[in-house]
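Milestone 3.1: sequence recovery, worked example.
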């Protein structure tokens, strides 16, 4: 299964390169699980698990203490610092070139679609070959992505940030005119990094980790290059998506790695 996962990721990389040719745990896992779940990991159990995850995620600030607060504080400080440079980066550093921007958007969409499809493929292959580790990985990957989408949508509704193409890339927050199309955070980054975290954790050989996280980085970079998001949008989407993926793995994993 490791070879199959690596092949899928490398194939995804090749597709993204073809499309684009026209153009440590420093951050802690969050939230920390209260206890290891004894529930069986199945598709039928996913709704219950997702509700449990969301409760843990949104109440996690209450569990911060001297031993685990450093990472979240650093992420908040880094986000604040990057927000102050967002306008300059988008105005001076990211070219307004319709061909380049469109290719970057296409590449990010393709990569993200691959991250959505990969857990499904792993699950299907595991089901066919009676590989319990693979089927569990597929289910955990799906759970992590749904958790990420839920958090992402709440943050979007709260932040109401303008997209880089609006008002000269000023990136103003709390603009009711944004509606449901808030720029902060990046949904693509959330999905890619939560999926990548599961794949890299469950199939943790170096090449698989490099492929998973390298492609997730590609998603984040192309969202900025495509002028769909500011750097701070993808920073938060990437970091929190990764945290959620790691959290779900540690909460749901029942089988030892092969």
């Amino acid at each position: 299964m490791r070879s199959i996962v690596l092949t899928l990721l490398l194939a995804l990389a090749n597709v993204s390169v073809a499309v684009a040719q026209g153009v440590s745990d420093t951050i802690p896992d969050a939230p920390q699980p209260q206890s290891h779940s004894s529930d069986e990991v199945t598709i039928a159990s996913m709704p219950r698990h997702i509700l449990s995850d969301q409760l843990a995620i949104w109440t996690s600030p209450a569990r911060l203490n001297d031993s685990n607060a450093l990472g979240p504080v650093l992420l908040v400080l880094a986000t604040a610092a990057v927000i102050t440079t967002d306008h300059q980066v988008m105005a001076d550093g990211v070219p307004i070139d319709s061909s380049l921007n469109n290719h970057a958007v296409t590449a990010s969409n393709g990569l993200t679609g691959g991250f959505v499809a990969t857990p499904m493929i792993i699950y299907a292959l595991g089901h066919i070959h009676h590989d319990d580790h693979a089927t569990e990985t597929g289910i955990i990957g799906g759970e992590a992505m749904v958790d990420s989408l839920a958090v992402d949508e709440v943050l979007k509704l709260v932040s109401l940030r303008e997209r880089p193409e609006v008002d000269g890339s000023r990136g103003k927050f709390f603009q009711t005119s944004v509606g449901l199309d808030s720029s902060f955070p990046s949904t693509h980054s959330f999905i890619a990094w939560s999926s990548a975290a599961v794949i890299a954790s469950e199939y943790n050989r170096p090449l698989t980790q490099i492929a998973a996280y390298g492609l997730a980085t590609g998603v984040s970079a192309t969202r900025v290059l495509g002028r769909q998001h500011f750097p701070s949008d993808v920073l938060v989407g990437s970091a929190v998506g990764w945290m959620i993926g790691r959290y779900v793995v540690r909460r749901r994993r029942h089988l030892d790695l092969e």
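The chain has a mean pLDDT of 87. The longest helix spans residues 98-129.
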